[in-house]
């Protein structure tokens, strides 16, 4: 069989139906009954008009009964507004500017009947009514008009008719006056009912309003146990690394702790839940996930005194997301930041470039014709140096940057609870080596004529040949005789040298020479800045739990007789005077 404990210290009244209490249900039933009476029994207008009046009355009554403004019921809000409008005013200027003809009225306490808004409203209405009556009497004296008669409002009940008027006219007038008197009576009764219905909840709310210094709930009739001041739970360390948060908690008293982590796209999804019981001074460490754009961590507790509370880490209290910055030389990313008592520590990772595009004013030709262009050349990064400066308020620390690695920093901060805003600035300077293409040097050569004398040597090789020819010789008898003739010749080899003079014309031209250039050395500076914040808790203090009040000693009854009374005095160690 399961056993359930019914709490008696919960500051909430019983809910009978849905979220309505029993007095609210009774009040809403009364409002509904009166609204039905207006619709069913009101002697005016068609049914649509009666329904509209009944609906307006019902909505107004339900708003008075169940409506709240800022968690306070509408009668309490109306009471505050009446107290402000009808109560006394206090002068906010210097006392020297005040000139009083009489001593000021004493300031009433919130629980005094003199400061009741209904009493103030009644006094103001009576004051204005007396003033209006006084003015009306003075006007009647001046103008000679008849004084006010109440029967005029509700119609004549008898008498006052003219003795000389005809009976038919008198009866018609009496009927008209009777109808007019009925309507005026009904309207006056309806207004009076509305005022009573609106005043009763207001008076009940004022009667339930506690005095200053008491419990501020207007629903519960018992006093909760006194609050024991002091912190129950302390955060002794908070470190965010990547998508995880490491939190060290320490209990100042015995308590039951519940740890929750929320995240997701909307920030309300549950990502972690754990419970643990801690003794006074005990520590516990949790590695909690951080998920979504706006995660939050909630540590709720309930101590042995029956009191509860919570510590929430979100927004600027939680360094999330970890900041990052991109530059031409390096990209910076905060991979870890956290708080420990007296210091804020973190790690900054850098990823640096090996090559860059450098803008160079490059000369492509020189000499006879010069030309330069602006070119983007690939530059080799030969070295990067820098300093990481971390600032929080008036405190500052600087460490050397580790290019392409992780740079750790530790900044001492003042003790005490608060949010420390961090500004991390990295000043970088890189050495660049830019390889330049070759330079073309141009030289102009004009036109010229040159006469040259040279010795020309010709080698004539040796030559020999034999020639045979047939010769026909005529005879005397007219015949011909053919004779063959053979001749041989031979020329030996020889060398012939002669001096030759000639002219050479050189035309105008431009000669180009390609020259290699040395690499260009340059430096480039860059500054990257990121910002974050981390929450620091106060110093740990154990909770001082007050000693329980001693139970009262029962009083020994006094005997009735004189003899018994003397014996009782002796038992108490007193001396009997008689």
What does this structure look like?
The protein is elongated and about 215 Å long. It has 578 residues and is of the alpha+beta class. A hairpin with a 3-residue loop joins β10 and β11 (330-340). The chain has seven helices and 24 strands. The chain has helices spanning 22-41, 47-66, 74-86, 117-143, 151-154, 167-208, 562-572, and strands at 68-69, 72-73, 233-241, 244-251, 255-263, 269-278, 283-289, 296-303, 308-313, 324-326, 330-340, 343-352, 355-367, 371-392, 395-400, 406-412, 418-434, 439-445, 448-460, 463-474, 480-491, 494-506, 509-515, 520-536. The longest helix has 42 residues, at 167-208.
Brief rundown of the structure:
The protein has 578 residues and is an alpha+beta fold. It has helices at 22-41, 47-66, 74-86, 117-143, 151-154, 167-208, 562-572; strands at residues 68-69, 72-73, 233-241, 244-251, 255-263, 269-278, 283-289, 296-303, 308-313, 324-326, 330-340, 343-352, 355-367, 371-392, 395-400, 406-412, 418-434, 439-445, 448-460, 463-474, 480-491, 494-506, 509-515, 520-536. It has seven helices and 24 strands.
